[in-house]
Specification:
heterodimer, A: 74 residues, mainly alpha, two-stranded antiparallel ribbon, 2 strands, 11% strand, B: 136 residues, 4 helices, 81% helix, 0% strand, flat
């Protein structure tokens, strides 16, 4: 099972943006941003795209998959 | 701006309490022929109804947090948990139903609907907090 790693927090801090501001820009709650940053919630494709769009980056730069070592092809 | 939880509290918890109060009153009045008890119960029911209605009206006028996908997910989880609960209860009734009879009058129906409404709010709150606690 692969794990989704987000770089939302890094991009947000780099843009000197508060969680509230990002939440308002993408139309969600601050709590949801917090959970996304902590990797406790996997966003929908649309939300992931909206967040990447705010920072003007490709979605792959904002989110990446970490493969589980047990499932790696030999 | 009011939080989504507050809005949910008003739309589910308060209406649930109203339903429970109405159910209890209906059950209580059903066994009584005293007119003053009937009038008093009507006054109580109308009083609770007006308070709930006024609170709902106040909440409608206020700006509410956006209903984002996480909130929708938690809302669906709360609703489906209740559905699963009803399913389990029905299975228990089908298996052991011969031991007791199920009679539902309007008072009991109000009571059950009210409990479901309250449970929906409580479960929604639990799911919201559960995800918050997991990273503390």
């Amino acid at each position: 099972m692969s794990k989704l790693i987000t770089h939302i927090g890094e991009f947000r801090r780099a843009h000197n943006m508060k969680q509230e501001e990002l939440a308002e820009l993408v139309g969600i709650r601050r709590e949801t941003i917090s959970r996304l940053e902590k990797g406790l919630y996997n966003p929908s494709l649309k939300l992931a795209y909206d967040i990447a769009k705010v920072f003007g980056v490709r979605i792959e730069m904002m989110f990446e998959f970490e493969e589980d070592e047990n499932n790696m092809p030999t | 701006m009011i939080t989504l939880k507050s809005k949910y509290f008003i739309s589910k918890m308060l209406w649930g309490i109203l339903f429970v109060v109405s159910g209890i009153i209906k059950l209580w009045v059903a066994g009584s022929s005293n007119t003053s008890i009937r009038i008093a119960s009507d006054v109580v029911a109308w009083g609770v109804f007006l308070v709930v209605l006024a609170t709902e009206f106040y909440a409608e006028k206020k700006k509410v947090e956006p209903m984002d996908e996480l909130a929708v997910l938690n809302q669906l989880k709360a609703k489906s948990s209740i559905y699963n609960g009803i399913f389990v209860l029905m299975v228990i009734y089908l298996l052991f139903g011969s031991a007791f009879t199920l009679s539902i009058n309007s008072g009991v129906a109000f009571l059950i609907l009210g409990v479901f409404q309250i449970l929906e709010f409580l479960l929604f709150d639990v799911y919201e907090k559960k995800e918050l606690k997991s990273f503390e």
